[in-house]
Amino acid sequence: xxxxxxxxxxxxxxxxxxxxxxxxxxLAGVRYRFGSGTGLVDLDLSVPAASIxxxxxxxxxxxTTALRVITGALRPQAGTARxxxxxxxxxxxxxxxxxxGVVAAKPALYDRLxxxxxxxxxxxxxxxxxxxxxxxxxxxxxxxxxLDLRVGGYSTGxxxxxxxxRAVLHEPDLLLLDEPTSGLDPESxxxxxxLVREMTAAxxxxxxxxxxxxxAEGLADQVVMMENGSAILAGSTxxxxxxxxxxxxxxxxxxxxxGLDVLATMEGVVAYGREGATxxxxxxxxxxxxxxxxxxxxxxxxxxxxxxxERSLEELYLRVRRR
Amino acid sequence: MSDxxxxxxxxxxxxxxxxxxxxxxxxGHSPDFWAPMLVLAALFFVVVPTILLLTITxxxxxxxxxxxxxxxxxxxxxxxxxxxxESPTDRTSYALAVYLFAPMAxxxxxxxxxxxxxxxxxxxxxxxxxxxxxxxPASEREIYLGKLIASLVxxxxxxxxxxGCYSLxxxxxxxxxVGGWFFPTSAxxxxxxxxxxxxxxxxxxxxxxxxxxxxSAAAAQQASGLVTxxxxxxxxxxxxxGLLGAGHAGLWVGAFAWVAAFLxxxxxxxxxxxxxxxxxxx
Lengths: 323, 282
Fold this sequence. Notes:
Oligomer: heterodimer
Order of helices and strands of chain A: EEEHEHEHHHEHEHEEHEEEHEH
Number of strands of chain B: 0
Number of helices of chain A: 10
Shape of chain A: elongated
Distance between the termini of chain B: 17 Å
Number of domains of chain B: 1
Radius of gyration of chain B: 22 Å
Distance between the termini of chain A: 25 Å
Order of helices and strands of chain B: HHHHHHHHHHHH
Largest sheet of chain A: 6 strands, mixed
Shape of chain B: elongated
Strand content of chain B: under 5%
Radius of gyration of chain A: 24 Å
Helix content of chain B: over 70%
CATH class of the largest domain in chain A: Alpha Beta
Strand order of the largest sheet of chain A: 5-6-7-3-8-9
């Protein structure tokens, strides 16, 4: 592996810190530069089998380029890419792509053709023969009744579903989704993510990019935060949270918020801060809460709320990016 | 980066034809695109020749007959000897049918195939469908050849059908004046089956390269029009020469054109790359 100057503080290795041997996708020091800018800079990525890896990051972070390198559509200019242990950008490209299903950010469908024609074309390209499970794939995503309509007349949700049906038609081992829920209504998004979970449970490995951190949080086995073409952080949501915020945070509210300031000197309080009527209290142990409540009551503080605060991936993302 | 040398993958014909069929299917669903092409072919192969030949044979336009008869004097001896008919009108009709309209057999397929080919790769890029092909197991050569077939077929097929209609028209109009059905002559068979296809392939090798390199379909159409104009003129001249020339001129013209087409296509195949299908600026 090359030296990675752009990785800030956490290595982009998966949860637990140790790169798993023989991950489905192994990118090491991958670099890809466009004529007009930087695509990837020394990107490391390891994707374990039958897991969901979500790439998050701002526009231009390199998420789409990373997906393109994985299928071999773009060949790394430096570093190594291995998918199923093969070289996707070289001689093994066909073997890799045969096992990949891709849903691009734009659904990449032929608008003048019907849904059936689109799936038929994919079946021909993947050599599935005349008995390709077109109806089955369409039914799986709820578009079987629209198969004989022109795709140009489909809604955004239908197009995404058709693109998903096309991507899984050949039952890929690796599914790559580039912002698959972009432009979808909440119901369709929910259905799509449910199917992603279902496929992973059946053994498919999924790599997905998204802007929606909430979506990533509920879905990902591994989150990879990208910025300027590099992975700046990687791991499971829980691991990352524990790494950044190892201690529990509890929010206290009171009728007279100034009375809460006494918390700063109490035992078990590691950090204290108050914003308006709410005090954010970092504790060494969440079991301290009943004792603190009792102490505040004894001090005459009339509490209105005590709530444990679950940190979100969004907070983590913003914190990491602010650094 | 990979240490292993890239091996030339073998061509999977199934995938190559799938790409071609998909393009043709899309074309079939685009009457706004192919209807003008049909009109063009009908004009060149049926309407204009029919009107002209009917005018000469039935109305006997003396001025036209005189002008064309004079032009026949400059034809090569072998061509002059091949002209059938007793009267100047019959000989003029025959000469027009066999020699004057030959270039249209080149212009029509080239115009149609250029229009189709110019859009074929850049169209994938513009619509985003190139992403599907770029991530598919189809090799770049399979995609290229599929696109080539899809661009070649509409032009050549239209020409063959137009050629059939033209043959029928000239035999019905001129045939009775020159002793029966005479068309196609052997030189026309050579032109249609041996000379036109390679010229079409040469043109498409240029057009597809342009289509892979430019950023928009409009730019592809413009650039193709400019680049293929000299090629059309060259094909026009060579085809006419093949028809008029003595001996096996048509066969030689065709042979050279095939070699040029092979070289052009081989070079052109390299223009289709996955980054270009993705519209990536490398």
